[in-house]
């Protein structure tokens, strides 16, 4: 099917009298890496929450493969191929990395009755593949609760990928990471995009990283979209420099 994979069409979100997102339109194309930037409080997380179904728009429409998903439940959207990572990770700290990924795969495949079975070798190949993709094969037997921040984020990535998504939404995927950990996340994102043609929409504090990997950048400021284009265009925009890069 042609046209954007995910389309936010003049979406607004108010919290009481406060309008956090105001008539923002964003179209995510198949296989695109789209970076979402803007100062603190600009509405980036709110926009991702609208895209993932965690929040419902006050007005406007959201379409996935051309069909409206405004009002759909996040679980339903995960099953239809929209995965997101949260700033707070939804992993089980007292289970190992392998067990966390196995549960994600089982949930995706509707194997919930098997949760209580001795897991043994179930889905071993699939788990190994996912851990390889996020460069965590060497940490497979570690307890999730004992992982460093960067490793936890990568586990979260593996859990998101277990759903075989066509769209991945990431809210500050490198928050709290060291330079080396960031480089691995960038590598994982690029690899995912190159190999699977997955569409990515992500927010990030690290502007250099966004300009380095995004094919297109959307800039929010006080809930409004002030720029949308190729990195070079966005960087050159006087409005963007004024409200954001010139801070
Ligand atoms: P960003 O991710 O760009 O830093 P957010 O989307 O988190 O910004 O927040 C945008 C604005 O909306 C902020 O002013 C924030 O305080 C406000 N906001 C976000 N979520 C809520 C909420 N649940 N209730 C009230 N205000 C909120
Ligand atoms: Mg945020």
Automatic annotation (TrEMBL):
Cleavable signal peptide: none
GO cellular component terms given for this protein: plasma membrane
InterPro entries associated with the record: AAA+_ATPase, ABC_AA/LPS_Transport, ABC_transporter-like_ATP-bd, ABC_transporter-like_CS, BCA_ABC_TP_C, P-loop_NTPase
Gene3D superfamilies referenced in this protein's UniProt entry, alphabetically: P-loop containing nucleotide triphosphate hydrolases (3.40.50.300)
Domain of life: Bacteria
UniProt-recorded Gene Ontology molecular function terms: ATP binding; ATP hydrolysis activity; L-isoleucine transmembrane transporter activity; L-phenylalanine transmembrane transporter activity; L-valine transmembrane transporter activity
Alphabetical UniProt keywords: ATP-binding, Nucleotide-binding, Transport
GO biological-process terms attached to the record: D-alanine transmembrane transport; L-alanine transport; L-isoleucine import across plasma membrane; L-valine import across plasma membrane
ABC transporter domain sequence ranges: 6-247
Protein name as annotated: ABC transporter ATP-binding protein
């Amino acid at each position: 099917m042609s046209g954007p994979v995910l389309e936010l069409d003049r979406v607004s979100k108010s919290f009481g009298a406060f309008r956090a997102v105001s008539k923002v339109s964003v179209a995510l194309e198949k296989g695109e890496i789209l970076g979402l930037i803007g100062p603190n409080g600009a509405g980036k997380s709110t926009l991702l929450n609208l895209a993932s179904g965690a929040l419902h728009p006050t007005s406007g429409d959201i379409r996935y493969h051309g069909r409206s998903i405004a009002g759909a439940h996040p679980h339903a959207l995960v099953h239809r191929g929209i995965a997101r990572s949260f700033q707070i990770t939804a992993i089980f700290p007292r289970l190992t990395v392998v067990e966390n990924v196995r549960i994600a795969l089982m949930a995706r495949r509707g194997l919930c009755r098997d949760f209580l079975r001795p897991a043994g070798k179930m889905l071993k190949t699939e788990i190994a593949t996912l851990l390889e993709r996020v460069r965590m094969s060497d940490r497979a037997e570690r307890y999730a609760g004992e992982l460093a921040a960067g490793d936890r984020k990568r586990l979260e990535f593996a859990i998101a990928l277990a759903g075989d998504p066509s769209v991945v939404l990431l809210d500050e995927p490198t928050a709290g990471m060291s330079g080396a950990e960031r480089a691995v996340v960038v590598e994982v994102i690029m690899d995912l995009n190159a190999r699977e043609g997955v569409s990515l929409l992500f927010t990030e504090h690290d502007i250099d990283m966004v300009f380095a990997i995004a094919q297109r950048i959307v800039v929010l400021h006080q809930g409004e979209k002030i720029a949308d284009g190729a990195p070079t265009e966005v960087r050159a925009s006087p409005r963007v420099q004024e409200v954001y890069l010139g801070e």
